[in-house]
Each structure stands twice: as structure tokens, then as C-alpha cells.
Amino acid sequence: MEKKFNFVYVITNKANGKQYIGDHSTDELNDNYLGSGTYIKRAIKKYGQEFFNKEILEHFEIKEAAFDSQEKYINEYRES
């Protein structure tokens, strides 16, 4: 069953400015999800959740569209 919300997001570490881009599908926008990658998990463990800010970059109708679009945002943030 398709989740209610599908989006691409950016997580910013307020301590050092590093950013992580990913996609997420959920039925609850405020589920406190900050990512599942190794680097983001290590950073959260080191700094604590309060040092991270999540910004939704774009919403999508289906999970596959969010997943496919995250590469576009990774490239955009890498270039800026």
C-alpha cells in the first residue's frame, strides 16, 4: 500500500553545516525520521537529533518518483 507522503528531503547538521539528501515515504510527516544511511546515523549519534534540521524539498505522488528525484537534488547541492 502506498504511503500518504512521499518526498525528497535535506538534513542539515547545524554543528558543522554538512548535508544529507534522501527520500522518505510515510503516513506521518512528523515521524522524526532523519535518514538511514551510515554517515547520518553516525552524525546523529555524535551530535544528537537536536543538531539536525530537516527540510522537505519536494513532494511526490508515489515513492518511486521521490526515489528517482533524489539524484537531481544530490547533484544540485553538490554544485552549490
What does this structure look like?
With 80 residues, the chain is an alpha+beta fold. The chain has a single domain (5-79), classed as GIY-YIG endonuclease (3-Layer(aba) Sandwich). Helices cover 34% and strands 32% of the residues. The chain contains two helices and three strands. The chain has helices at 38-47, 63-79; strands spanning 5-13, 19-26, 52-60. A three-stranded antiparallel sheet has the order 2-1-3. Strand 1 and strand 2 (19-26) form a beta hairpin. The radius of gyration is 13 Å and the shape is globular. It starts with a strand and ends with a helix. 15% of the residues are buried. The model has no long low-confidence stretch (mean pLDDT 95).
Task: Chart the SSEs and their pairings.
Blueprint: E1 5-13, E2 19-26, H1 38-47, E3 52-60, H2 63-79
Antiparallel strand pairs: 1-2, 1-3
